[in-house]
Design goal:
Elements: E1 2-10, H1 15-25, E2 30-38, E3 41-48, H2 51-60, E4 64-75, H3 81-91, E5 98-105, E6 109-115, H4 119-128, E7 132-133
Antiparallel strand pairs: 1-3, 1-4, 2-3, 4-6, 4-7, 5-6
Length: about 140
């Protein structure tokens, strides 16, 4: 189980630079980033090597921040693998609230951060189906 840091920010040029500079100067490693435009405001989701520290630092910089539990799922980077994962989620009646993914090793490995109502059950059911849950990067 991982905590993704959600930062609610004004949708203006320079906001992302300021947040990422703050993270960098505190020696925090960004592992994954997702930006959603919600009009006047946006939601920045970041996975870092130390989410609690990230949340506290950004909170102290007057950002509205929250932690959201996600499961990190590893699949092969080849055609049809995401469809297999989606089919398992459907079979298990698991609805995705939010997901973001990236290729880690082209042709070999991809990961997806998946947010659901109960990530512990998601991990348990996916492992039972032979799908790898990432515990460290």
């Amino acid at each position: 189980m991982w905590n993704i840091v959600m930062v609610f920010m004004e949708n203006k040029a320079g906001k992302l630079a300021k947040i990422t500079e703050t993270i960098a100067k505190n020696n925090i490693d960004l592992l994954l980033i997702d930006i959603a435009d919600e009009g006047q405001f946006g939601v920045l989701r970041i996975l870092t090597d130390c989410p609690e520290k990230t949340r506290n630092i950004l909170y102290n910089e007057n950002y509205t921040v929250a932690l959201n539990k996600v499961a990190l799922v590893e699949i092969e980077d080849k055609p049809g693998e995401l469809a297999k994962l989606a089919t398992v989620l459907e079979e298990e009646d698991i609805n995705i609230k939010h997901a973001h993914g990236c290729i880690i090793d082209r042709g070999k490995k991809a990961i997806f951060a998946i947010s659901v109502d109960n990530p512990e059950i998601l991990e348990e059911r996916l492992m039972a189906k032979g799908i790898k849950i990432v515990v460290s990067l």
